[in-house]
Amino acid sequence: MSKAQRHLVLIASFLALVFDGVELGLMPVASLSVSKSLLGADFTNTLGGDWFARFTAALMLGAAVGGVALGGLGDRIGRTRAMGICILFYSVFAMLGAYARSQEQMLVLRFLVGLGVGGLWPNGIALVAECWPGASRPLVSGVMMAGLNVGILLLSQLARLWPITPDSWQWIFHFAGAPALLGIFVLTMLPESPKWLATRNTTARPSAPLRELFQPQLIRFTITGIALSTIPMVGAWSASKWMIPWADKVAAGIDAGYKAATQGWWALGAALGSFAGAQLAAKIGRRRSYLLISIATWAMTVVMFRWTAPLQPSFHSIVFIQGFVATLFFGWLALYLPELFPTRVRATGSGLAYNAGRFATAGGVLLVGVLFTALGGDYPRVGTICASIYALGIVAIWWAPKTQEQLGD
User: Fold this and answer.
1) pLDDT-based confidence at residue 289 (cuts at 50, 70, 90)
2) Could you give the CA distance from residue 349 to residue 315 in angstroms, rounded to a whole number?
3) Cβ distance 316 to 261 under 8 Å?
4) Across all residues in the chain, what is the average pLDDT?
């Protein structure tokens, strides 16, 4: 593969993840406005929080299914074809959200968006990992994971310029449909991974890569990847993300753009953190870095919910720091997960490991929604309780196997 082709792969995959991030950041900043519009006089703040949990759970469930089904597709038909299909899934169904006339319709559409969101990550990461030299992988992995949060940052800045309100929210779903053009380009123009092509042409490929992941030679790697991906995923959506509807509730009558500013500060920290996570893992080792990230994220999430609050001068500074430390995990995962699996099952293995956590996240967010209602809509208490999820990483990392890239760690 030529240098120009490698850069084209990196740019296209980065943009695909940017728009993936737009989908992930859309409902945290738009959910209450959508619910106020579609529920009308039946809306309450507690019901709005409950629907935020349901929308999040639907997206996570869809992403979990898509990560396994569409993630595995990349091992069968190629990384670029699977990427293009995933981009079309998340963009077309996101655009249809502008025409939803009930909460239930929006719920179904968020599940369908999730299919593409979940399938994109393993195929994009596998494609880039296979097209770039090993010495460049920490840098390239960091750039890729920063793409997700650049997308959230982009969305937040658009929402500050054109506030999302109960009377004006459909436009953001139209914007989220624009990447369909990128999906068509990826399907028709983007070069395929040479390693995948070589594996397809010269070796006996497994008829059931998902089954192979649970055979004795790979099952430890599969279970470890699932566990290490689940902890930050559940923590992010069951704890961290609640700060945005919290900011919306507190500041809605004072500053309509405050929720978008909150998401923007978090996304800025997250873009830097998701890039730095891969560099940190490469520099000080996979186990040591994951341990330190777990401790720092648990501490900063508690600080965010207990020591500050929306509209206080310190709030956005702490949100920025929390976004940075919490997303170090995802840069770490982008480097570590592809190292766990051989080329023939890399997309399937990475997709299963990364997205299996979304099954747990979907259930976890629904339980947090129940907790939120039981606590009378107390955002700080919910966030503080759920922050303890991050502490599980302190224990889980000691079972992580050393990969080929870190035998000297």
Assistant:
1) very high
2) 39
3) yes
4) 88
